Amino acid sequence: MSWEIVIGLEVHAQLATSSKIFSGSSTEYGAKANTQASAIDLALPGVLPVLNKKVLDLAIMLGLAIDGEIASESIFSRKNYFYPDSPKGYQISQYDKPIISRGQLKFVNNGEEKMINITRAHLEEDAGKSLHGEFERSTAIDLNRSGTPLLEIVSEPELRSAQDAVMYLKELHCLLRTLGICDGNMQEGSFRCDANVSVRKTEDPELGTRTEVKNLNSFRFVERAINYEAARQVEVIEEGGIIKQETRLYDPEKNETRTMRSKEDAHDYRYFPDPDLLPITITAEHIARIAKDLPETPWNKRLRYLKDYGVSIEDAEILANSPETSVYFEVCMRQSTLSPKLIANWIIGELSALINKSSVTISKSPIVPERLVSVLKKIEDGTISRKTAKHLLGLMWDSNSSADQIIADEGLSQVSNNELLEKVISQTLTNFPSQVEEYKTGKLKILGFLVGQVMKQTKGKANPAMVKALMEKNLRQST
Amino acid sequence: MNLPNSVTEIIQGFENGKFSSQELTKAYLNRIDNLDPEINSFITVCHERALLDAKKADRSRANGSANKLTGVPYANKDIFCTKGVRTTSGSRMLDTFISPYDATIVERLGSQGMVMLGKTNMDEFAMGSSNETSFYGQVNNPWNTNCVPGGSSGGSAAAVSAGFTPVATGSDTGGSIRQPAAFCGISGLKPTYGRVSRYGMIAFASSLDQAGPMGRSVEDLAHLLAPMAGYDSRDSTSSMVKTEDYFGNLEDELKGKTIGLPKEYFSTNLDRQVEGVIEEAIKEFEKLGANIIEISLPTTSLSIPAYYVISSAECSSNLSRYDGVRYGHRCELPTDIEDLYKRTRSEGFGEEVKRRLLTGTYVLSSGYYDAYYRKAQQIRRLIKDDFANAFTQVDAVISPTAPTTAFKAGEHQDNPVEMYLGDCFTVASNLAGLPALSVPAGFVGGMPVGLQLIGSYFQESKLLTLGHMFQKSTGWHQHFSRDESKGAQ
Amino acid sequence: MPITEKEVRKIAQLARISIDDKDICSYEDQLNKILAFVDEMKAVETEGIIPLAHPSEETQKLRSDKVSEKNQRESYQSVAPTTENGLYLVPQVIE
To answer: Averaged over B158-185, what is the pLDDT?
Structure first.
């Protein structure tokens, strides 16, 4: 008899809009306190919300991507509660009729394909920020974030391990980024997650009492917090205790979850339809318009890379999981007839290494797809060796010159000239007589050493295949 | 100077050079200063600003850039946000609140060149039918200062009636334009929900609130409605339906028009003498050629309970923003955040407001939502359907505006429900979102009686025609509560 | 069912209104009068009737995703009870 963990996730994704959900204030991150809080965000007397059209478009995109139901009529409700960073004393959210319901998301964990049902995704506004500890005996309120559009994506409690939860989240994160729904920046809080965790004996048909774990702002924390919380619950139950349904806060420093200070009064949010906002209608034409321009999902993209390009599963994942990398890869593909594998290898290998060393992203790389392609073409036509290409790429990173220009300036062309090579080879055979003897007695492996000497002499510019062939010919002749 | 009796007369006066906007504005301000202490219809009088605006108006009239309404003085109910001018909504909560922005209608009337004389008194957050709940003291009815002026737009109604301003804005959530208009013997229109922008109008109950014009004559209402009406991109509940020419049809004949008389409206709590006045008015309409038929609005008796549940629910949420954090009243030395909220709100709100916040919180709370809030919304649909049915047969529905004339101050102090019952003829049109007009129809015991006409959606023009033709033939709107020649010097 | 004193206290807490102990009874009494009056609604059968939240039959109008607001912090905070460095201050809230 063993314990099973049951997890449902609530993701809050900040929608990638320029302005807020109900006001024309900027949503840009990092502005001075309260400089992006308009009369509407501050809930001045008399102000009214007006819905941003783009949030609907983005929600519809998600609905299409997860094959969910997109409500033809959807309504906003008020969730009433007092908190200093909630200026109206209520949050505009969706309750009865969410914009998206009943979708699915597929992901892979350890080579195993899994599918999780998404209960609903609804639109709501974010609260402001409460800053504790900056002023003595006071909490300071910054309402710049107040009214930022969020899409809350709620999964069914179908996840069975912390690792599954992380892989689901990564897939969702990747999907939202690829579709341009959310920038996915977890440090800035654009993608946040709460986990509903419970445990039960594997054969038990009933779900256990769940707790809601908040403040999970990295994939690592999600995994740790769920594992901690599940272990805690098992311990409580095994010691004869019962699990209280409550909200718990994850503390990453101590790696533990703890009860959030319970409020004096029981919550009673008194949801009711917001009378300032009429029902939203979404027509079939509207959905069709969004569907027409819907980007490919990462899942489909991976399949296509595998099928059409024959790249490895690992490479397909790396290329498809980052929208920027996949764009880069596909531009390279369009600009050449080079093998997809060659391009993939160089993007994932050398180019990534250069990118990781600097702080730019691939979309800002000074080596644009065209330049990478020009280098790879030089390998294919034998002008340079792979090793030289690596060196060349490094030079191009810091220079605006073309590959051709640098090859000419730095004399990087491979030496394919027989006459020149013959000279170096005969010199080498003279310089290493004992090794030549060894070869002749049958130690054929020593050939590598001799070829290496030639490469060294030519500073790597010799075509290694050619050196090897000529060397063998020479050795045969001298016997 | 003798103050003019209508906006039409003011426009003529400007055109004939009889007076300037500055002279006229000064005369109204003087009259307010001299006579309003007895009435208390203004919370804030904007002497300097009004005179500056009047000067500007005279200049634009001189250089030919004036609109029809340029230089015409008016007053705003203190529920409308006015940039740089204190906006209180009749509450201690907003006693120090200087609005940083203008309500859409304030902006629109301002851009016509109209001159705002000041902000009128009102029931706190528009919750009341007698103007006794104002933090700034009750307003006295100019016809009899022992009586209430009605509410919540009682300040606007009393100010127009007493000749302190030719016209004023009001807001109507359950009768708050029409009932005070009736009690003070003036005209008032609650337009169709969505006809006039709510942006900058301090919310009481968002699905019921509607701003509208108040004035002596229907013609004056048309003058004020024209610039107020129309879609506003800042109020997503405002309507895209095109506005009408509110003057074009004013003189239309009533022949061929059908007016419905709901049998349920002439119930027991209707004062017999008021009923008599309405019967006379009905005869007048018949004389004018209208056809009167009896209709039925069966759910009408439940409109007050449904109204109180819905309006209280919405206000309990709308007024949560008054928390002492960003503006408005804040209690002294709060010990913690809960103390800040509770003391701020308990000190800042008056008794009637608190009662409604508690009622509204209760009807939305877990376990009671279905029995109260949901039920009220179902009844709301029935009421709307009743009207839809009626309007297949009639052009307008006629009734008294209120079951009695203005009552004595303090009369309903002990039982809030008695006061609520006074709104029995007015709340249904708010629940259904229909336009409704109140015009003076006579007197009982020296106090004015109002007649209500309810129209179908966006048929303000039709209502104005009915009201105007009635006024042309009866002249009831030309009975003034105060001697026009006094106080202006 | 009449509202109880306990319920009055509970909704007063939800509405963040403090009521003195001496006034609880009068609130209880007034609320019960109001509720008894609105209970008249029960007389009508409403089974199957779709609740009407709004008189308008139009649907939500939308705005385009444009930043139209400028920073007006100074003006907005001029009416604020307590601010410092552009932040609104409230008594310390313990998480």
So the answer is: 98
- Lowest-pLDDT choice from A124-138, A272-286, A394-408: A394-408
Q: Is A461 exposed, middle or buried (0-12, 13-18, 19+ CB in 10 A)?
A: middle
Q: How confident is the model at residue A430 (pLDDT cuts 50, 70, 90)?
A: confident
Per-residue pLDDT, averaged over B10-39, amounts to 97
Q: What is the CATH code for B1-489?
A: 3.90.1300.10
CB within 8 Å: A275 and B338: no
- A-chain residues near B325 (CB < 8 A): 84, 87, 141
Residue range A174-188, pLDDT digits in tens? 999 999 999 999 999
Minimal Cα–Cα distance from A351 to chain B, Å? 50
Nearest CA in chain B to C95: B337
Q: How confident is the model at residue A263 (pLDDT cuts 50, 70, 90)?
A: very low
Higher pLDDT, B77 or A132: B77
Nearest beta carbon to residue C93 from set A139, A143, A265 = A139
Q: Is residue B46's pLDDT more than 70?
A: yes
**Interchain pair B87, A50: CB under 8 A:** no
For chain A, the first-to-last Cα distance in angstroms comes to 75
Chain B, 326 to 345: residues with Cβ < 8 Å from chain C are 326-328, 330, 334-343, 345
Fold type of domain A418-477? Arc Repressor Mutant, subunit A (1.10.10)
* Residue B313 near chain A (CB below 8 Å): yes
Write out chain C residues lying below 8 Å of A53, CB-based.
Answer: 62-65
Provide the mean pLDDT of chain A: 91
What does the domain layout of chain C look like in residue ranges? Answer: 5-43
What was the pLDDT predicted at A264?
Answer: 42
pTM (2 d.p.): 0.91
Structural domain boundaries of chain B?
1-489
Q: Does any CB of chain A come closer than 8 Å to the CB of residue C54?
A: yes
- Measured between CA atoms, the residue of chain A closest to residue B208 is A275
pLDDT, averaged across chain B: 96
Task: Please give the average per-residue pLDDT across C87-94, as a whole number.
Answer: 92
- Of the residues C57, C90, C92, C94, the best mutation for testing chain B's interface (the one with the most B CB atoms within 10 Å of its CB) is C90
Per-residue confidence at A381, pLDDT binned at 50, 70, 90? Answer: confident
Domain boundaries, given as residue ranges, for chain A:
3-286, 296-410, 418-477
* Chain A: closest CA distance from residue C94 (Å): 8
Does C88 contact A25 at a Cβ distance shorter than 8 Å?
no
CB-based contacts of A182, cutoff 8 Å, min separation 6: A13, A14, A15, A16, A151, A176, A190, A191
B77 among known catalytic residues = yes
Kind of pairing between the strands at B396-400 and B447-455:
antiparallel
